[in-house]
Amino acid sequence: VRSHKVPGRTLDQVVVQNALDRVNLVKIDIEGGELDVLRSAPETMMKFRPTWIVEYGVNTWPAFGATPEQLLELLSERRYAVRQFDPRAGRLFEPDASIWQSGYANLVLVPAEKLN
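^ that's the sequence the OP posted. Answer follows.
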């Protein structure tokens, strides 16, 4: 067995180090660590107000100690809403509570001010 250490950076650090002047959309699919990325990006979330596509699943999030309640609390603090995308209708919709029992779902996190 071999291991390698690699440096890690927060999303906020990546945005600053690359001198980004805009962030419109972020897609996160890292098998349960999605909430950690969101937590690492308060400046990006509040300054640029991007839309996020985040994978959620009851089979991966618990391994990171992440819960839907923690996500919803973070989104409330940062003024975001949870939506899902309906490809047939081509629109976002508010998911029902069953989403939190899903083995896999892509959530769309939208700044509150961008909702219709």
